[in-house]
Amino acid sequence: MTQTLHDRLKALPCWTGPVDPRPLGGGITNSNFVVDDGPRRYVVRVGQDIPLHNVMRFNEQAASHAAALAGISPSVRYAEADLLVIDFIEGQTLDAAGVRARLPAVVDLVRRMHHGIQEHLSGPALSFWIFHVLRNYLRVLRRKDSSPPVELDRLERITHELEQALGPVETVFAHNDLLPANFLDDGQRIWLIDWDYGGFNTPLFDLGNLASNNAFDAAEREAMLALYYGHPPDDALRYRLQVMAVASMLREGLWSMVSETESTIAFDYRDYTRMNMSVFEQELEILNIMRG
Hints:
Residues 22-229 form the Aminoglycoside phosphotransferase domain. By secondary structure, this protein is α+β, with helices and mostly antiparallel strands. It has ten helices and ten strands. Helix 4 crosses helix 8 (218-229), helix 5 packs parallel to helix 9 (235-262) and helix 6 packs antiparallel against helix 9 (235-262). The model has no long low-confidence stretch (mean pLDDT 95).
């Protein structure tokens, strides 16, 4: 944290007394700080727009406000164009095993998010149509000449095939980034945080994202679908979920490929790319088996 930023955060008009902002771990599209203001603790999220990744801070702030009103996320206490102050949640950041262990509560949270946030959302809001996101990343990578054209051709073909396989969808306001670290358990309930990628999308993307990012096995995916939809899934729904699990991991991999050369945040994007593209290939193999 630079002295200039530290001074700026100290001077925010939302504080009731002197504060000393401290860096907080986490965040690979923004910087996070923790602030104690009297007996209360807050998180300050600082980040610029990142159009390349579909991250626009006005949209993140609107989604954060709506999620708080819906009881999904911590309350928003203050905002500026590139800055958001929210309540600090005392609790455990989940890992993938923790998400799987709390499956009913996690799915209930996702379902309430899909049906509740848009009731509180005000002003302009972005879409996050996953296949547009994938095509845009592929265009960026072609311009950069950072990947072999034959590999990009393959990924572009797969993107087209996935979109055709998915077919018509319903639309909700989705989170679109259901990594385990975005779930917090305070011992009484689970919270969902970080709305950088919030936008209108199909709920199946969040479900595929949840399953692929948290290493759900076949039984856990079956249970997730039954919990979300209220009835056991049929083969068609299982197939469409797998389509979105593949799309989710391809997006994570392409996001990281682009970030390798674009991001200034200290993070091992190259290793993250390798990990996510490996899982993408595993999910694609499952989809190919389902196709017969």
